[in-house]
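Worked example

This section walks through a single chain of length 348. The input is the sequence exactly as stored; nothing has been trimmed or padded.
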Amino acid sequence: MDVNIPHSRPTLTDQDAEAVAGVISSGHIAQGPVTEQFERAVASRMVRSEDIGTASGTAALHLVLMAMGIGSGDEVLIPSYVCTALLNAVRYVGATPVIADIDPATGNLDPGDARRRLTQHTRVILVPHMFGGPAALDDLLALDVPVIEDCAQAIGATYGDRPVGSFGHSAVCSFYATKVMTTGEGGMVLTDSAGLADRIRDLREYDKHVDDRLRYNYKMTDIQAALGLAQLSRLDGFIRQRRDLAGDYRAAFAGSKLRLPTADDGHIYYRFILGVPDDPMGWIRHMAGLGIACARPVDPVLDVLAGRHDCPNARAAWQHHMSIPMYPSLTMIERDRVIEAIRTHHGL
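Given that input, the structure is written out below as tokens.
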């Protein structure tokens, strides 16, 4: 059967189209005043004073590492259970990625394993808030190494009474098409350091400089920013819908042998991850046969990709985790189809 319930889908409306059309009608479509407005709005939301829009989340990671002076001989700690963007960004600057294991309950970086892998060369810890759930920031900040929060899957999530992204040395966001909110492509760096922000802005574009230094074309456009502003105005509604859907899934699978995500008041459920008792690919093929796309939430895990095989919790997550459709534009009929397909396969 053709898949007609995708695993991920952006939530787009006429409001978004009108915002983008307004920028196109203005004739100023490259980086400009709308980008600045979007930067300020995201910074306000995340309680940061400095904000730099970028072409992607990966570009944001690359720029902040460069601006911090991270390079050859330095080590950057990253979790194994995350997309390869973090691994690539560390390699872009010539640093050495040190891959650590995860907390099996949350999928986030395990502070204990991170501590064991620290050396005199560790300069930064990259801390993604995986699947919309906040990482253990108190324990990770206590390691006394600068933390960059990766909020690619967690804008709008909270840790305690503060938004994620407001705790570390700096933070990055991604606004890819299927993220919590979207600009199509795009990202952002957020920090409270004016000096760091100035260095990132300098590196972000190569025009109109008098010195010969390597710089990049990592700018955000006003078209992207206009879409971002429209999406940001509805972010709280997106999060409410995600949490409501997560509640529906929890109720449907309660009492089963399926492992459900850790309940956390700050979680925004970018993904809803089920732990299944056997190989998730059997489940994924079953769902695809019913027209429902599911996926391994991370594939591959980074320690295996690097030939290390020393992060057993990440490996176990890869062997048993399945991500099911979870987004605000999922209809109630589609939700019920997802639930019924899983219950049928599991014999509930």
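What to look for: Residues 14-232 form a domain with the Aspartate Aminotransferase; domain 2 fold (CATH 3.40.640.10).
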